[in-house]
Description:
Layout: H1 7-11, H2 60-63, E1 69-72, E2 76-79, E3 89-94, H3 105-123, E4 128-134, E5 145-151, H4 162-168, H5 174-189, E6 194-195
Antiparallel strand pairs: 1-2, 1-6, 2-3, 3-5, 4-5
Helix pairs in contact: 3-5
The structure holds zinc ion.
Amino acid sequence: xxxxxxxxxxxxxxxxxxxxxxxxxxxxxxxxxxxxxxxxxxxxxxxxxxxxxxxxxxxxxxxxxxxxxxxxxxxxxxxxxxxxxxxxxxxxxxxxxxxxxxxxxxxxxxxxxxxxxxxxxxxxxxxxxxxxxxxxxxxxxxxxxxxxxxxxxxxxxxxxxxxxxxxxxxxxxxxxxxxxxxxxxxxxxxxxxxxxxxxx
Length: 200
Ligand SMILES: [Zn+2]
């Protein structure tokens, strides 16, 4: 690439491998031993379209708004897809297709309360110590917030690597996943909306 978009980009050593040392031995890092970091890739500009953007794949939420939904009210939908290594991994989306930057006032007004309510609902699952949440937004244009249940006392799972642990740990049983989803949906329905979900 000839034209980098900033001095930051121009400084980076593309094609080289960074040392893994800054992460090794850290309390939240789940790997040890001889690790090799992948070579740093060149920037891709313009960036490829996300799902739901012109030229990208269709927006999965708009194609089937209540697929995998475990709860919804007139503004927000909470989805939980399948059993994974954590007691609950859920995705909160507005019913309508917006980005963070064009989310209308009536949705930004309830975004904070919904984060608070969802975090509290997930903490009602037995054995959950804290609810993590994050917004990445690099896969789909439809605004979405991830929630991850951090099991009580599992201090290695603090921080961003909880998403890696979710893939590494054995999946919870299907009936436990469904019970956890029912717990979260019932807690949210105390304030608004209703539980959803076929088979949950
Ligand atoms: Zn959408």
